[in-house]
Design brief:
Blueprint: H1 3-12, H2 17-22, E1 24-28, H3 48-52, H4 56-61, H5 69-73, H6 79-88, H7 96-104, H8 109-118, E2 123-129, H9 157-166, E3 171-177, H10 192-197, H11 203-220, E4 224-228, H12 237-248, E5 253-254, H13 272-287, E6 316-321, H14 340-352, E7 355-361, H15 371-387, E8 401-403, E9 409-414, E10 419-423, E11 431-435, E12 444-447, E13 456-458, E14 462-466, E15 477-482
Parallel strand pairs: 1-2, 1-7, 2-3, 3-4, 4-5, 6-7
Antiparallel strand pairs: 8-9, 9-10, 10-15, 11-14, 12-15, 13-14
Helix pairs in contact: 1-12, 8-9, 8-15
């Protein structure tokens, strides 16, 4: 495609309303790593941001992500290496492909789609190839490395899942590990310098990754392109991927992880002094919570296990697991999983700040989704069946939050006509006072699920609302103010 035409297409592309209003998506990490289903858990567990504050070298050796099993396995002295030797001996990671494909015969995509719909999700994003290089579809462009010609799922997982979720009204997106592919690179990532250097940069891999993205786009028509970790240099993303995708799918969206790191970074590991400086800088950036990634064209940003502190003008999507891992980790138990209350509070906070939540499930090797993950999704869906009006197709208000006189957190969302005040918890007593929240006499107040006007009193600083009789305990309750106050 001509560069000027491609630039014009990208410049004119606007964030589609469906993605802005969807609010909730389901992420699915499933692959060979689901066979050992192991990652190190320390005490009650830590998320990626807590772990990286302990230093990147420690983090990579004790990675909480089960989907990073192959990389952690390659680090001498890691808990994963010890676990593998004890349980699998000399069996290679690639040998898990037989186990995965044997179990794949029992997978039920319709059951997944039913669960995602019941959770109130509006889209699903499937990991089609993670960093280990195993593809979840039998691609027309097989892995070119010796012995890996059949390094793929024997069923067309993205095709079957896309059909199932779309039949239930959900959108479908594809994740692809653009830069990292450990079937091409034998060395492990164990610090910042090796992270920058890791990744296939040869022409063979560039053609391989490009062909895969074109195949995913043309065959499955994804509504979301969700790339990860980066993309090889030597590709003009504007003309080769972004503009052709928008031309084919005008209402599609692209995430912010098509980052292209200069080729010079691949030599950092060989320069010990420079490598030491890079590691030191990276450790400080990560410890401070900063974002070390350069920017590239995107429709939304993707903080991982993070929530922005304030309303962001640009669309964003927080992605995380129900626990501390994306892939299924059998070492996790109730202590590592979000409670339903914490999940709903997190979700409401994200939506109030112009974000979506991409909530991950990590199925077991045969496709079974654990009861604890199912319970969280179904609990969220039950809450949304009452309060979804305050979530879907809403916008942030002029501020995201306040508190009640009793200390309950409050989050706000709004539509063109109404304002919603969502209390993160159930108030005690028959009244609740929301601070710094004047409601004019012209606006009525009702609680979603009760649907009767409520009495209120404004004292010049706070609004006190009389509650509708006894209230069933809930992780969050919503007051609807109609019409929305204008100050």
């Amino acid at each position: 495609m001509d560069k000027s035409e491609a630039t014009r297409i990208i410049k004119n592309h606007q964030l589609p309303a469906w993605f802005d209003g969807a609010k909730l998506g389901i992420f699915i990490h499933w692959g060979l790593f689901s066979v050992p289903a192991y990652a190190y858990v320390e005490g009650e567990g830590k998320d990626i941001n807590q772990m990286t504050k302990m230093g990147l070298e420690y983090y990579f050796a004790h990675n909480p992500y089960a989907e990073w099993y192959l990389n952690t396995l390659r680090i001498d002295g890691s808990p994963t290496q010890a676990y593998h030797q004890e349980n699998y001996g000399t069996k290679s990671y690639e040998d898990f492909a037989n186990d995965f494909n044997d179990a794949l015969a029992g997978w039920d995509p319709a059951g997944w789609a039913d669960l995602f719909q019941a959770a109130g999700a509006r889209y699903a994003v499937l990991v089609t190839k993670h960093h280990d290089g195993f593809t979840l579809w039998p691609s027309d462009f097989p892995n070119p490395n010796p012995g890996k010609e059949n390094y793929h799922a024997t069923r067309d997982v993205p095709g079957e899942l896309a059909e199932a979720v779309r039949a239930r009204g959900l959108r479908f997106g594809t994740y692809y590990s653009g830069k990292l592919d450990w079937s091409f690179t034998p060395g492990p990532i164990h610090d910042a310098a090796t992270m920058l250097a890791n990744g296939s940069i040869g022409r063979e891999y560039i053609d391989y990754a490009n062909n895969h993205w074109h195949e995913l786009i043309n065959k499955y028509e994804p509504d979301i392109l969700w790339n990860d970790i980066g993309y090889p240099v030597g590709v003009d993303l504007t003309t080769e991927i972004f503009a052709p995708y928008y031309q084919k799918h005008p209402d599609g969206v692209i995430n912010d992880r098509f980052i292209q790191i200069p080729r010079a970074a691949s030599s950092l590991e060989r320069h010990k002094f420079i490598s030491k400086i890079v590691n030191g800088i990276a450790n400080r950036v990560v410890a401070s919570g900063g974002d070390p990634h350069p920017k590239v064209h995107h429709d939304f940003t993707t903080p991982e296990y993070k929530v922005y502190p304030d309303i962001r003008p640009q669309k964003w999507e927080s992605n995380r697991g129900v626990g501390f891992s994306f892939g299924y980790n059998k070492m996790e138990d109730e202590k590592q999983y979000l409670s339903l209350e914490a999940l709903i509070h997190l979700f409401v906070d994200i939506v109030s700040k112009n974000g979506n939540l991409l909530l991950n499930v990590g199925p077991m090797v045969g496709g079974t989704i654990l009861d604890i993950q199912r319970d969280r999704l179904l609990g969220l869906g039950k809450w949304l069946s009452v309060n979804g009006e305050a979530i879907y197709n809403t916008k942030p208000w002029d501020r995201p939050a306040t508190v009640t006189a009793d200390g309950l957190q409050v989050r706000f969302t709004t539509t063109e006509s109404c304002l919603y005040a969502i209390l993160l918890g159930t108030p005690a007593g028959d009244k609740v006072t929301i601070k710094n929240f004047p409601v004019p006499d012209a606006s009525s107040i009702e609680m979603l699920g009760a649907d009767t006007p409520l009495d209120r009193y404004f004292d010049g600083r706070a609004t006190t609302i009389s509650l509708p009789g006894s209230i069933e305990p809930s992780p969050a309750i919503t007051f609807k103010i109609d019409p929305s106050p204008s100050y």
